[in-house]
Amino acid sequence: MTPLHYFGDIIRNLMLAIPLPMVRVLFIATFVALLLWVWRLPREMTSPPNGARHWSENLKVGATLALVIQILVYLLL
After folding, report:
1. Residue 60 near residue 41 (C-beta atoms within 8 A)
2. CA-CA distance, 60 to 35, in Å (whole number)?
């Protein structure tokens, strides 16, 4: 076996040591962190520069909806 095989075995054993409920929590926490980041973006960055300022032009609405659906799906699985 090459040194790369030993390194791969070490990484695999470390990953196998993480309990699956913790992996699920970390995976969902990633989406929650992304949702918080989207909410904190300034309106100028998520709306067209010369738009009519309608609520549907703000990209935060669609991103929030998509992230909330993903969070709910992964919570229910």
Report:
1. yes
2. 9
- Residue 57 CA to residue 25 CA, distance in Å, equals 32
Rounded Cα–Cα distance for residues 51 and 22 (Å): 44
* Token code pair at residue 64: 């929030």
pTM equals: 0.71
- Report d(CA 61, CA 75) in Å as an integer: 21
CA atoms within 13 A on the CB side of 76: 6
pLDDT in tens, 23-42: 999 999 999 999 999 988 88
Structure tokens at 52: 């009519």
Q: What is the largest CA-CA distance in the chain?
A: 64
